[in-house]
Automatic annotation (TrEMBL), chain B:
InterPro entries: AAA+_ATPase, ABC_transporter-like_ATP-bd, ABC_transporter-like_CS, P-loop_NTPase. It comes from the Bacteria. Keywords: ATP-binding, Nucleotide-binding, Transport. It comes from Dyadobacter arcticus. Residues 2-238 form the ABC transporter domain. PANTHER family: INTERMEMBRANE PHOSPHOLIPID TRANSPORT SYSTEM ATP-BINDING PROTEIN MLAF, PROTEIN TRIGALACTOSYLDIACYLGLYCEROL 3, CHLOROPLASTIC. The keyword ATP-binding applies. One of its GO terms (molecular function) is ATP binding. The keyword Signal does not apply. This is Phospholipid/cholesterol/gamma-HCH transport system ATP-binding protein. It holds the Pfam family ABC_tran.
Amino acid sequence: MSVIGKYFIFLGTLFSKGEKLPVYWRRLMEECVGIGVSSIFIVAIVSTFIGAVSCIQTAYNLVSPIIPVSTVALIVRDMEILELAPTITCVVLAGKVGSNIASELGTMRITEQIDALEVMGINSSSYLVLPKVIAAMLTFPMLVIFSAFLGIMGGYLAGTLTGVITERDYLYGIRDSFVPYNIFFMCIKPFVFGFLIASISSFKGYFTEGGALEVGKSSTDAVTNSCISVLIADYLLAQLLL
Amino acid sequence: MIEVNDIAKAFNGKDVLKGITAEFQKGETNLIIGGSGTGKSVLLKCMIGLVKPDKGNVLYNGRDFYNCDKETRQSIRREMGVLFQGGALFDSKTVEENVRFPLDMLTDQSIQEKQGRVAFCLQRVGLEAASKRMPSEISGGMKKRVGIARAIVMNPKYLFCDEPNSGLDPLTSVKIDELIKEITEEYEITTIIITHDMNSVMEIGQNIMFMYEGAKLWEGISADIIKTDVPELKEFLFSNKLLREMQP
């Protein structure tokens, strides 16, 4: 409980005694590049293959004369939009971005860089962490939209190239019974997950004590705790919004 | 002048500082010496506000650092320059950006003014040629000098140095010591140096305070330290065989 309390106090310090707005703008742009742009490649690879595998495995399990083949595409689409793109992408990002944030802040802590900021009278948590949290909340939804698109494209490529579904059936399937609200739901999830991953990882890194070994431990804890919080939030959001 | 009054600090029930009282004079290099684990760095952290003491206060020209309003504390912080043990340079910024950082964050100076000030500080520490290099591309001694440049860029009234020559070769150590002393005298700064380097003690120590197990055991000027009869201080000073042979 004391750790949770410390986490909420830490979140409070992000918004107290801020610096000049242009400073935050510059930091935000740096973090958007570091968190968002640098994650495009891994998200693209993971999403395309997950979409391709989803298509092949769904087709494998739907061998029935009473189920139209286009249902494979419909299932791939809904799996991608409702779960795979937002949740799996964010779990991957928890590993990549979360460990990066925790190790960066942990190293800054043990090499006294955070102390140097504090001595200058700069609110170190606000200066270092707030841009990371906002950048994650802005870029994660974009990455998830990109991931959903690539996942559906991956399914299309795998399905049509292996012959399990025709191009016509796939295109019909992904447009069949489409619920626009699901897109809104898909975008809400990474917004929440981005906040959780960036803030939990920052919290773990910011309060690192010791040396290189502890930085590694903070990084591991950041990824573990972020993944658990993402899965819990995933369930709560599904319960609340669907 | 900095006055430290009855500073005490304990961690997990263990007393690390036991009521330290001291005065540090303006325009002089004040040394805090002592063995490892005697509380020197904790005392420094209490003085600069990184660790809040359990008891006592720190006065900067009469202004109580821990019992004042936020604005006063902020203005005291802006009068401080700190050289950390490892330099504490920001890894993602170049040497020039590191030195300019306090100006970017804390002042509204124009770009030209900032560039001029940074160039002056880098030239003062002899690093004008390394301005575009990253901290990972420079040596330990250069990092310390960049740290000094960053510490003086805001024209501080108080300069704190935590073991400025740790990890440096004897020649570089002497250069760093001389640089700190020159800056202290040139700008009339109150400088406090934490060290256990005997060369520093003999070369630049004007006022010296010896700490032992969290308490102040001896205080005086460098000329008197050799003649001390405090056994703990003698043991600290003459731990080296060569020095023991030279002992008066």
